[in-house]
From TrEMBL, chain A:
Native organism: Gluconobacter kanchanaburiensis NBRC 103587
SUPFAM superfamilies recorded: Stabilizer of iron transporter SufD
Name of the protein in question: Fe-S cluster assembly protein SufB
Any single biological process term in GO: iron-sulfur cluster assembly
A UniProt-annotated Pfam family: SUFBD_core
Native organism taxonomy: Bacteria, Pseudomonadati, Pseudomonadota, Alphaproteobacteria, Acetobacterales
TrEMBL record, chain B:
Similarity comment: family membership: Belongs to the ABC transporter superfamily. Ycf16 family.
PROSITE patterns in the cross-refs: ABC_TRANSPORTER_2
ABC transporter domain mapped to chain residues: 5-253
Keywords tagged on the record: ATP-binding, Nucleotide-binding
Gene3D superfamilies: P-loop containing nucleotide triphosphate hydrolases
Family matches, as NCBIfam families: sufC (TIGR01978)
InterPro entries, per database record: AAA+_ATPase (IPR003593), ABC_transporter-like_ATP-bd (IPR003439), FeS-cluster_ATPase_SufC (IPR010230), P-loop_NTPase (IPR027417)
Protein name as annotated: ABC transporter ATP-binding protein
Single Gene Ontology MF annotation: ATP binding
Domain of life of the source: Bacteria
Length: 494, 256
């Protein structure tokens, strides 16, 4: 039997294997009633102890959202979403901000353990007070459902002048900073989902790196949806002042459930002169069962602006989860000589749908952008790369290089590449390369004749295909991502 | 003679654009333990098919006969099980694996085989030590370990990489398919030296070629002439000399 046939069968087999991280933690929750109205927005703001200006900002977003329509241009299909049939606020009943692990709910710790993610931060979390010196420089702001219940390293970071905290804390403690930057990269009316997020976001991270500071550690957040039927509306805001440098890691898994869950996050990055922000994501939300039922709907708006000259924003993402992924981490290159990068691996299997890519908006002269997008489709899944490169009239000598590669496993899946290129400057240069390939029987046979199982062979070939992107990830994330790719395609063969 | 590799009446076909085409038509062959055999034959006689069928490639359908290796039904095993059992196929055209680091590939393969054989896996340090010893032996640069498997390798480098894999995987039976590489003397020499360096009472090899020149570098225990999907003549190394002078005609006529 040809290897490709077997491959397809195993892909189908994979669908039967259940989601490894599909479990629910039983922690007492404080849940707002279902539905979305001004009431809900007011309740969220009140529960968060927010100042008046924040409430007004939310209400403005909510009223704008009411006038907006869900976008329909993406290559995705789903039944209509009933926005009234969801909870918009869920908070574990715990006192906020435990100082030591003893104060953290043991159930929560068990959840961390089950996640199996590079939570050597587990041990790390366990020694919040004393272990600070000898361990890896990773700081975790764990977002457990909508509320951050454990934040580590704030002390060390504070010494460097770095602010890394839940955004709700930032709204209370650094209102002038939040007010100055929130919504400046992704305006509240930017799009339907961004408006929704602006109205009801419940948590997320806030990062502020002062002038000239190289953040002493990787900043890391693990997201996890844990309450039945709770939409997740994270809001993250990262600001790097002149000559500041930061690397931020975001990763997530989600427990198994029946209802489709809406996840509409907004991430805003702001890089000043000579600043550099690296934002890495490993996304593994529950993708749904083998019929595609019950997975997460992931509608995310991520955008960064290189405000200052020679600043740099780099997005790296490994997307293996969610039933639907709608996500275009983008860079606005406003500073002269600024640099935007987008490295992406998107894996879809079974009935997953992904419409993802980036936008590189070149406003200033000598700006450069690089897009490397790797798409892997298996099963009955459908994956689209959608990318915009826009050279504005002032973008003299701007350059873009785009490479989109698609890898197909089996013959039931689809891969699409939709590049939009708009150049309004004669001196700008835009390059686009695209390939589509299948894992060949020659490659599989070659590996197997060397003793590798078909599954290991596919894993090896897929990881090789994604290498250019994976090598952009911080070390501990790269290992996790490789594992995740293997798991995502597990059973996709023999 | 103890049963090592034993092929009896082997028939195999391939699907050629929807029409099945018989390639192996009742092939008999035995390679005893510790011996090196050479198969020669004109183009299209089924030599490469034989190597693929023995290594377990999917595209070929075995329609009759048997092949046993160390007493096991070889044809019932998956390719990776055959590798674990000690079979190794050196490819005529080694396959490129873009982005797959060669050292990582070698280590994955070595440990897969070691695991299947019940041996302890090699950690990164032990593996590096083993592989360094081999690359030195083969006068390969370390650079080849860092590159993607076979990507951008010259013909000679690809052959060296195949021999490197062979030496690391320590097969007891190696098939070397050199059907089309006869014109590249360097490649031929590398392969021949690889085989010669492994020669021992516990190692056998089947070298497939249609160029007599290979026998300048390897002295086989037996030479088989293959045509029309069967072995039509077997004998000592001196057969090659006859071939060199008279070509395949004599054997083809005798078999007809």
């Amino acid at each position: 039997m040809p290897a490709v046939t077997e491959t397809r069968e195993t892909v189908e087999k994979l669908a039967k294997s259940s989601y490894e991280w599909g479990f629910e933690t039983d922690i007492e929750m404080d849940i707002a009633p279902k539905g979305l109205s001004e009431e809900t927005v007011r309740l969220i703001s009140e529960r968060k102890g927010e100042p008046q200006w924040m409430l007004e900002w939310r209400l403005k977003a909510f009223r704008a959202w009411l006038q907006m329509e869900e976008p329909g241009w993406a290559h995705i299909h789903h039944p209509p979403i009933d926005y009234q049939d969801a909870h918009y606020f869920a908070q574990p009943k715990k006192k906020p901000g435990p100082k030591s692990l003893d104060e953290v709910d043991p159930e929560l710790l068990k959840t961390y353990a089950k996640l199996g993610i590079p939570l050597h931060e587990q041990a790390l979390l366990a020694g919040v007070e004393g272990a600070e010196e000898q361990r890896l420089p990773v700081a975790v702001d764990a977002v457990f459902d909508s509320v951050s219940v454990a934040t580590t390293f704030r002390k060390t970071l504070a010494e460097a002048g770095v602010i890394f905290c839940p955004i709700s804390d930032a709204i209370r403690e650094y209102p002038e900073l939040v007010r100055k930057y929130l919504g400046t990269v992704v305006p509240i009316v930017d799009n339907f989902f961004a408006a929704l997020n602006s109205a009801v976001f419940t948590d997320g991270s806030f990062v502020y790196i002062p002038e000239g500071v190289r953040c002493p550690m990787e900043l890391s957040t693990y997201f996890r949806i844990n309450a039945r039927n709770t939409g997740q509306f994270e809001r993250t805001l990262i600001i790097a002042e002149d000559r500041a440098t930061v690397s931020y890691l975001e990763g997530c898994t989600a427990p198994q459930r029946d209802e489709n869950q809406l996840h509409a996050a907004v991430v805003e990055l702001i890089a000043m002169e000579d600043a550099s922000i690296k934002y890495s994501t490993v996304q593994n939300w529950y993708p749904g069962d083998d019929e595609g039922r019950g997975g997460i709907y992931n509608f995310v708006t991520k955008r960064g602006i290189c405000r200052g000259a020679r600043s740099k924003i780099s997005w790296t993402q490994v997307e293996t989860g969610s039933a639907i992924t709608w996500k275009y981490p983008s860079c606005v290159l406003a500073g002269e000589g600024s640099v935007g990068e987008f490295y992406s691996v998107a894996v879809t299997n079974n009935h997953q749908q992904a419409d993802t890519g980036t936008k590189m908006i070149h406003l200033a002269p000598n700006t450069r952008s690089t897009i490397i997008a790797k798409t892997i489709s298996a099963g009955h899944s459908d994956s689209t790369y959608r990318g915009l490169v826009r050279m504005q009239p002032k973008a003299r000598n701007a350059r873009n290089f785009t490479q989109c590669d698609s890898l197909l496993i089996g013959d039931q899946c689809g891969a699409h590449t939709v590049p939009y290129i708009e150049s309004r400057n004669m001196t700008a240069r835009v390059e686009h390369e695209a390939t589509t390939s299948k894992i060949s029987e020659d490659q599989l046979f070659y590996c197997r004749s060397r003793g590798l199982s078909e599954e290991d062979a596919v894993g090896l070939i897929v990881n090789g295909f994604c290498r250019e992107v994976l090598k952009e990830l911080p070390m501990e994330f790269a290992v996790e991502a490789q594992k995740l790719l293997q798991i995502s395609l597990e059973g996709s063969v023999g | 003679m103890s049963d090592f590799l034993k092929i009896q009446g082997l028939q195999a076909r391939i699907d050629a654009d929807g029409t099945p085409k018989d390639i192996l038509k009742g092939l008999d062959l035995e390679v005893p333990k510790g011996e090196v055999h050479v198969i020669m034959g004109p183009n299209g006689s089924g030599k490469s098919t034989l190597s693929y069928v023995l290594a377990g490639r999917d595209d070929y359908e075995v329609t009759g006969g048997s092949a046993t290796f160390k007493g096991q039904d070889l044809l019932a095993l998956e390719p990776e099980e055959r590798a674990a059992l000690g079979l190794f196929l050196a490819f005529q055209s080694p396959v490129e694996l873009p982005g797959v680091n060669n050292a990582n590939f070698l280590r994955t393969a070595v440990n897969a085989v070691r695991r299947a054989r019940g041996e302890a896996e090699l950690d990164a340090v032990a593996f590096l030590k083993a592989v360094r010893a081999e690359t030195k032996h083969l006068s390969m640069s370390d650079d080849m370990l860092k590159r993607a498997v076979n990507v951008g390798f010259s013909g000679g480098e690809k052959k060296r990489n195949e021999v490197l894999q062979m030496r690391l995987l320590q097969p007891s039976f190696a098939i070397l398919d050199e059907t089309d590489s006869g014109l590249d003397i360097d490649a031929l020499r590398i392969v021949a030296e690889g085989v010669n360096s492994l020669r021992s009472p516990d190692f056998s090899a089947l070298v497939i070629t249609h160029h007599q020149r290979l026998l300048d570098y390897i002295v086989p225990d037996r030479v088989h002439v293959m045509a029309h999907g069967r072995i039509i003549h077997s004998g000592g190394p001196d057969i090659a000399k006859t071939l060199e002078k008279q070509g395949y005609t004599q054997f083809l006529e005798a078999a007809a």
